[in-house]
Design brief:
653 residues, Urease, subunit C, domain 1, eight-stranded parallel β-sheet, 28% helix, 20% strand, globular, disordered N terminus
């Protein structure tokens, strides 16, 4: 079919333009295509990693992949021809772990933009947000997001609610850390939430307290969810705006399919409504978030509830037009391994400084982190999920959390040897070396956020000291896992980090950020430049596979998407620069110029702007951007276990 191997000579690019023309030639009896994209470098990501020149699309599916000459036979009088001008065309990105409504909600709140702020700078940023909204009433909450708590704590210590009480306002304030595991609030917020010295710490969380037992202002994990439950819920109209904003950011990034990794009824309602309105521009997959209390005490009931909610998603096989699927349940095994939270479940204790600040002496303490499920309760829950035909997506950042999940999978495989069960461990930031090979042996996918393998305020400094040199030396072990045979999948975890897919893929290849990319920690200070540690990186092919064909398998869509092959859905993107050949330092400075989902162009820029149908272009023009940073993915809270309403704060990772 005129295909070449990846390692062969680069294809000649003879067409310099990138516009649309309408075909008028014959097709020698071959059924004409709706769209032909030609004159490019088509990276198929199929099993043989073949390279082609052209793709023909008919009825929302790929009808042909091959040479320009052969594609010409499929150009009829009604065929739209898109000239690629030698650019790289590949399958659409599949983001297998993000929080869509949370990301969209970023446009509506105060964005601290992940910046390393001192306490004084934090107060100044918050006051600026207050001053920018003079119309707000004293009862209107100020919600701030993307706070880098680790940097503030490192620069001059954790802030307290006294800092917020000193701001010129009577409004309640809640500041959420970028990892969603900490919330800083003022006294007005604590009063509205009914939280005082007598309030006990909730299961799976705690209120930091002073010597008298009074909460200092920082709430960790479930304690933060308890405080933010006092925030009035978003209306359904607000949630639709969040969904539209999220879809606009996704199609600009070239994300044609995604999994929302902590979804509830609101997510299902929003995306089904957008699908009905013809506004859905990506394939939606929902991981139904489980309430830990119910899941621990009554696992069968928790799975039955999730199954009932999942049944309200689209039924039957996927179609070329994007829809809404729900086949996964989400479980949070532990917290985060980042200081100062130190809630990820470890096999040996976090280190603590028994010396002085000037002369630190790090020694094991008594904190092993938090495990939110016992091995027995997790095994019962996993078995119930497998029996219900639901896959499981498990957050585990600490090596003890990871091992507990692997043990539960082993028990489930033994109890149900014939079950088609596809578990995935999200994040796996620390994994015991002895457990690397178990991922492949148990067929457990490792869903990794590659951008975390850069030097950053949340990884070096206090986190490095608390984990210890040996454990920090194997942080973010996606390279070691792949070498041990694991299937590695990419999930951005947006809005935990800036939404920048190419930066994430670049870090996957180099394990280092990019000083020239404003979304990279390396742009903040030289200390964040260079590799995070010596753990292996991935090849360019491997990171692309993680964001295409491997992610498709996690979502049970490998027969429909993830590679460019005849019969699959026409989900594809065109890149500004060739990801396979640009220098390493330029990997994170790419852009998506055209995004197609099910044969329909949903986004285009520059030379490809004219490929977007008017009704699709109107969708983007109707999205009101309140925060320029938010529009590029700097965002907000998602849904979190146990919260009584859906205003976007119900999420941990």
């Amino acid at each position: 079919m005129g295909l070449r191997k990846t390692g062969g000579a680069l294809l000649a690019a003879t067409l310099l333009g990138a516009g649309i023309v309408v075909g008028c030639g014959g097709n020698d009896g071959v059924e004409p295509a709706d769209v032909v994209l030609r004159g490019g470098k088509v990276v198929t990501m199929d099993g043989e990693r073949r390279i082609a020149q052209a793709v023909a699309v008919r009825g929302g599916r790929i009808a042909f992949v091959g040479s320009d000459a052969e594609a010409a036979r499929r150009i009829g009088s009604g065929t739209k021809v898109i000239e690629l001008g030698g650019r790289m065309l590949m399958p659409g990105f599949i983001d297998a772990h993000l929080h869509a409504l949370a990301g969209g909600r970023a446009l509506l709140v105060c964005d601290l933009a992940y910046a390393p702020l001192t306490r004084t700078q934090l107060a100044q940023r918050l006051q600026a947000c207050l001053d920018a909204t003079p119309e707000a009433t004293p009862d209107t909450w100020l919600e701030a997001v993307n706070w880098d708590r680790q940097s503030t704590a490192s620069l001059d210590g954790d802030p307290t609610r006294a800092l917020l009480d000193g701001l010129v306002t009577k409004r309640p304030i809640a500041v959420t850390s970028a990892d969603f595991h900490s919330v800083l609030a003022n006294s007005r917020a604590f009063a509205l939430a009914g939280i005082d010295a007598a309030t006990p710490d909730p299961a799976g969380g705690k209120f930091l307290r002073d010597g008298s037992g009074k909460p200092t202002g920082i709430c960790e994990d479930a304690a933060g969810f308890q405080l933010k439950a006092a925030i009035p819920p978003d209306s359904e109209a607000d949630q639709l705006k969040q969904g539209r904003a999220a879809l606009a950011a996704l199609r600009e990034q070239g994300i044609t399919t995604f999994m929302d990794a902590a979804a509830d009824e609101a997510h299902l309602r929003v995306f089904k409504a957008l699908r009905t309105a013809g506004e859905l521009t990506a394939r939606v997959n929902l991981a139904i978030n489980l309430d830990p209390a119910t899941a621990n005490s009554a696992p069968a009931q928790a799975i039955a509830q999730a199954k009932a909610l999942a049944a309200r998603a689209d039924a039957g096989d996927a179609a070329p037009a994007p829809g809404v699927a729900a086949r996964v349940v989400k479980v949070f095994m532990d917290g985060v391994v980042n200081a100062p939270a130190d809630t990820g479940a470890l096999l040996t204790p976090y280190l603590q400084n028994i010396g002085t600040e000037a002369a630190p002496q790090w020694a094991p303490g008594d904190n092993l982190g938090q495990l939110y499920y016992t091995p027995a309760s997790l095994q019962a829950l996993m078995l119930a999920a497998a029996d219900a035909g639901l896959d499981m997506h498990l957050h585990a950042t600490g090596e003890r959390g990871v091992r507990t999940v692997l043990d539960a999978v082993a028990a489930t495989r033994q109890a149900r040897p014939g079950a088609d069960f596809r578990p995935a461990i999200a994040h796996a930031e620390t994994v015991a070396v002895a457990d690397y090979a178990r991922f492949a042996a148990l067929d457990v996918m490792a869903t990794m956020s590659f951008q975390w393998a850069q030097r950053a305020p949340y990884s070096i400094g206090e986190t490095e000291s608390h984990l210890g040199a040996e454990r920090f030396g194997r942080m973010e072990p996606f390279g070691s896992l792949q070498r041990a045979g694991a299937r590695v999948v990419h999930g951005s975890d947006w809005p935990i980090d800036p939404f920048d897919t190419f930066l994430a893929l670049k870090v996957g290849v180099t394990r280092a950020g990019d000083p020239a990319n404003p979304h990279s920690a390396a742009s903040f200070a030289p200390v964040f430049e260079g590799p995070i540690n010596a753990d292996p990186a991935l090849s360019r092919d491997a990171v692309l596979a993680a964001a295409t064909i491997h992610a498709a398998r996690q979502l049970r869509l490998e027969r429909q998407i993830g590679s460019l092959e005849a019969g699959k859905f026409a989900d594809l993107i065109v890149l500004e620069r060739d990801f396979l050949t640009v220098p390493d330092e330029a990997l994170g400075r790419n852009r998506v110029l055209l995004t197609m989902v099910g044969g329909q162009v949903v986004a285009g820029r520059e030379a490809f702007a004219g490929t977007v149908p008017p009704q699709r272009a109107a969708l983007s023009s109707g999205v009101r951007v309140l925060s320029p940073r938010g529009s590029t993915g700097h965002a907000i809270p998602a849904q979190v276990p146990g919260a009584p309403h859906g205003h976007g704060d119900r999420h941990r990772h």
